[in-house]
Amino acid sequence: MEMMSYASSSTTTTTRVSQGCDVFLSFRGEDTRTGFTSHLYEALIRKRIRTYKDDWSLEIGNFIAPALLEAIEASRYAVVVLSSNFATSKWCLVEIAKVVECMERRKLNVIPVFYHVSPSDVRHQSNCFEQGFANHEANPEITPQKVATWRSAFAKVGAIKGLHVTPDKNESEIVSEIIRRILQDMQDKSSVNLSHLTKGLVGIESRVNEVINKLNMESNEVRFIGICGMSGIGKTTLAEVVFHVIQHKYQESSFIENIKDISKDHNSDLCKLQQKLLDDVLKGESISVRSVKHGQTLLMTKLRDMKVLIVLDDVNHADQFMYLAGGREWFGAGTRIIVTTTNADLLNAYRVNETFMCEELKGEEALRLFCQSAFVDGHPKHGYENLSDDIVKYTGGLPIALTVYGSLLYGKEEKYWKDMLKKVQEYQHKEVLGRLEVGYVRLDRHQQLTFMYIACFLKGRDKELVEDILTDIGMHSESGITDLINKFLIAIKFDDCVWMHDLLQQMCWEVLRRESQQCNGKQIAIKHRHDVLDILSSKPTVCLRFFTKSI
What we know:
The protein is α/β, with parallel strands linked by helices.
């Protein structure tokens, strides 16, 4: 069976051609298989560069197996080792013609190695190559057009500046130079790729680089990295960009998004997530997950020798961690697991190596993101500068709010802007509130009560005072505050005051307003903390009128 090889922790593992690879090796087996090509192949594997090398099985009868041509299509680089008998093989010439076709059509990077042959002889098909082409031309089963195609491909590869191996040169130095060129080109393309992927994403490049630094790509250890922050802050977007920038460095990769939404029905949905992860990294293998325990066993046994990149997006329960990435011993050396969550406690419980904290956009970055959605050229129109500043200020730098409001205001007249500003000061757009409410819904009832109480009365108060008040009404103040901090719903500022994002506070008020619509019209004015507790603790929901003055 055709195979493509990779590096693992201690052995060489294999996977199918259809998965794609970094390097395709083209060579004449009788000339270099056990010498130069073998050394080059092993060096590529040691550097964890995914490499395809045909070992005997693909030249069958009078045709070349389609899988070999597919391997060339799927590769990013082709190293063509041109040796004295290369042109005697029809299959080598079919390969080189396909390499040139891919080079011209999709920028396949070709590195010729002139192994004990002259580049000039390759370009002109002379000397040691002359007889090989003459034999093909004399073969009645090969059309003149096909031979002409091979000659043209041969000449084009010969014209590429490659590496010339002569008897007096150290072959290990040539191998090292090939590796250096490939790795350097990969690195350069990653930088270009980052610029492309982050187009239109304000302030994200520095954050992407910081996460990549935390991943410590050169280490062979299995590393877990957390990306956490409040809902709507941009965790998933950041993880997506990092994933696409670095995924080429891994044997296989999987991005599992919206885990909290998918895994509501515990067992069956976790099985689906395990199945997706296995399908992503074991393409071509027919494996069916029968239960979460079975899926756990499959992941542990199938991935332990593979270097993989996995993103678990929006994890909110320990079981999701346990059954999808339960331990470092599940994975091969060099594996990276990125987890996004609004719950820092989960990351602490599973001892992630490092955590990146997503924060709101500040100043110019927040204004730029808003303007990209609100204006054609990404800059405030004349007369809209102050209105833009006011909208941005009210969003508190939350990316989801900046994008939503920018889109709503795009192309609208000044009067519409002023009306919208008035509205957002009274209540938030339902899309923004809906995203933020996710964090509230995940809380247990005790945590919801604590959160509502702080939102209605205690925001901005001294932490010690807040704890005293919560204790006074029979709530577990210290643990309740810690829970909310770890879920990024509140924070303790430098002056030791309890802080909450303005939009989260608005979300709390909107939840209570919505609940009030279910009642019979009775209104109660919230003037004291006990009113809030009584209302939230009671089963009948009553209409509320808010008085936001301090207690």
